[in-house]
């Protein structure tokens, strides 16, 4: 007898990493729901990948509970949540960054991750399911880069939420882990840092393997952590960084 496909919810699903995550879970036979800001970008991602979508603005405090209820009603019990939604573009030094920019980063990256984790954990406990939550973090939470402190602080918080949720949800059979990439070679990253550019070379000089992570490599780590092959792993943040944390 074949088991039913797991319902996998991926936030930030319309972006480069989100699409790679969706493709990787689809290859495992899972049923994927992309959750992202409503609009043409999300619709296009859903059409391209042939998966369901759910519009959600995670800066709205009640949005997480609403979208979880909507997905569960339409697609059934959620088996996996991947918290991939996040913003990276608000940069500035510690003396220059506007407080509002720091707050905006925290609102999406930290509060959005927490709200979705809480809503899905409540759903899994109510459904009596032993699910998995995977957060997309960053090695920036452990290794500072000047000007990127707001983003990196938010990812350090994501790692802390991962450990907090893991220890509290273990008794319910819910595992919580994180994937922590270094720079990921998405189309947006490649457009801003083309091959041979000084900025790209500066980043590569910090990576012992001399290459940025491919989005598919990040997705493969997330699929592993959400799978039965990682059944005894919880509360960890797995670097996918080409050795960058070694330097």
TrEMBL record:
<comment type="similarity">
    <text>Belongs to the short-chain dehydrogenases/reductases (SDR) family.</text>
</comment>
<dbReference type="InterPro" id="IPR036291">
    <property type="entry name" value="NAD(P)-bd_dom_sf"/>
</dbReference>
<dbReference type="GO" id="GO:0016616">
    <property type="term" value="F:oxidoreductase activity, acting on the CH-OH group of donors, NAD or NADP as acceptor"/>
</dbReference>
<dbReference type="InterPro" id="IPR002347">
    <property type="entry name" value="SDR_fam"/>
</dbReference>
<feature type="domain" description="Ketoreductase">
    <location>
        <begin position="6"/>
        <end position="184"/>
    </location>
</feature>
<keyword id="KW-0560">Oxidoreductase</keyword>
<protein>
    <submittedName>
        <fullName>Short-chain dehydrogenase</fullName>
    </submittedName>
</protein>
<dbReference type="Pfam" id="PF13561">
    <property type="entry name" value="adh_short_C2"/>
</dbReference>
<dbReference type="InterPro" id="IPR057326">
    <property type="entry name" value="KR_dom"/>
</dbReference>
